[in-house]
Amino acid sequence: MSDGAKAAVLHGALIAALFALHFVLPAYHHGNLARVMVLATYAMGYNLLFGYTGLLSLGHAMFFAAGMYGMALPVTHLGWAPGPALLSGLAAGALLSLVAGALALRTVGVAFLIVTLMFAQAVYLTVLYFAEWTNADDGLVLQRAERVLWGLDLSDAGVRYLAALVLFSVCLVLSLWLVRRPFGKVLIAIRENEARAEMLGYDVFAHKLGAVVASGTMSAAAGAAYGLLFGYAGASFAGVQYSILPLLWVLLGGAGTVIGPFLGALFTFYLIDITSGFTTAYMAVVGVVLIALTLFAPQGIGGEIRRRVWRGLP
Amino acid sequence: MSLLQTRGLTKAFGGLHAVQDVDFDLPEGEVRALIGPNGAGKTTFVGMLCGRVAPTAGAVRFAGADISRLPAHRRIREGMAYTFQITSVFARLSCRENVALAVRRRKGDAAREVPAALARVGLGDRADQLAGDLSYGHQRLLEIAMGLAQKPRLLILDEPTQGLADSEIEGFVALVREVRAEATVLLIEHNMSVVMDTADRITVLNFGEVLAEGTPEEIHADGRVQDAYLGTGDA
């Protein structure tokens, strides 16, 4: 079986399994998984930049928030329907990533990390500053009637799960397609050896900017969907913690693997969920597990699969 | 007609002139060696040719057009290829993908051309190995394969035989002789026997300036070159 066919089977099987789980999972885990799928979509967006292009951003919350508020603000204040609002969320993310990327990519390494962090803080403070529209920390609550997309009530748990699955599947397939295309392979080349990629005649800046926009727009899609599916847009989603989380998920799940972000988001979600059932000091347990994973599987779960099972894992 | 031409090309690092006022002409189809003692400015000079180093003053013309202001990747697209002094390959990618990246950039047919380019440097049976797992000498050859796969008009090789075994050097000399039919070659080289065996003409840099230029015989006989670089003439 060719690498392409193997990849199609593996990722197709994941989507099929998630669809099957819709019918068998108890309500609690069903709801959790819907949330994990949206967060994993965010992580996949992050992974395009961090895992495949090798650019470490600490400001992705701004893209998640751009999607979330780009969707929620027109719904709340202009009475837009969810369909156009989703598109405006995507557009907000694309625009912000284009501008922030064009500026931040003038720096490299640690400076890039700092600049993205600063941009994200600026976005966070902007959300707080315009409290009149954003309602700042309290956030915007979307009413049930505002969350009916093409006749589907997204506040219904079953519909919500399937909507999250559609979002996740589309972005998974998009990621897979992107990293196997020549464009994606150039991103990997830039990650591996930027000087060599440039001296093969590739426009490194343009490719990196393309990666930031793809990554930021996918993150915004996750943010917009999160707001719509769970009926809430709050400033905390623009905070620094939401910039660190996708990095964590991607590191644990396996940077530079298409399946890694999902594994990382799922693992972290349930790690916190289960340990917090035993102790209030659950973050200490989480920390120990993270240290263990970093020691024994530094490439993350997906990286270990690639090392031990299938080197061609995309 | 010159494929490559520089006029007054200068690079100063603070007060130090690494390259000073170099006028250089490289006719199409020639194999030119660039030699000179360590620190003579050879790598800085070719860095300015291919856009990795911004000149302090002067102009570079390539294939009739002024490329002085083009960024490196645009110059490569105009038909230059460059191999690094310190081997630079995609260590965690397969040899096949390393060369395929070079082929795809010019929209070539990777499936057909990659095996041919690898076979040409003697790495035909290593396509699936990770580039980082190759020996140092083989990594150099892989980088040359990436250079050839770009089908350049000008191939710039910065000390390509450094770290190669004697048998590999023989193969390299044969390869350069073969390549000259397709591309102009600019070769920075310390191994004088490689220079004598491959170059049509030699340019000698010393303290950032052109000290001499001529056929291998002329350079070999040049007393100033011997003083600066070759030693007592037994090279």
From TrEMBL, chain A:
It is a multi-pass membrane protein. Keywords: Cell membrane, Membrane, Transmembrane, Transmembrane helix. The chain crosses the membrane at residues 7-28, 34-55, 86-105, 112-131, 159-179, 247-272, 278-298. One of its GO terms (molecular function) is branched-chain amino acid transmembrane transporter activity. GO terms for cellular component: plasma membrane. InterPro entries: ABC_transp_permease, LivM-like. Pfam families: BPD_transp_2. It is found in: Cell membrane. The keyword Transmembrane applies. This is Branched-chain amino acid ABC transporter permease.
TrEMBL record, chain B:
SMART domains: AAA (SM00382). It comes from the Bacteria. The keyword Protease does not apply. InterPro entries: AAA+_ATPase, ABC_AA/LPS_Transport, ABC_transporter-like_ATP-bd, BCA_ABC_TP_C, P-loop_NTPase. PROSITE patterns: ABC_TRANSPORTER_2 (PS50893). Residues 4-232 form the ABC transporter domain. GO terms for cellular component: plasma membrane. One of its GO terms (molecular function) is ATP hydrolysis activity. It holds the Pfam family ABC_tran. Keywords: ATP-binding, Nucleotide-binding, Transport. This is ABC transporter ATP-binding protein.
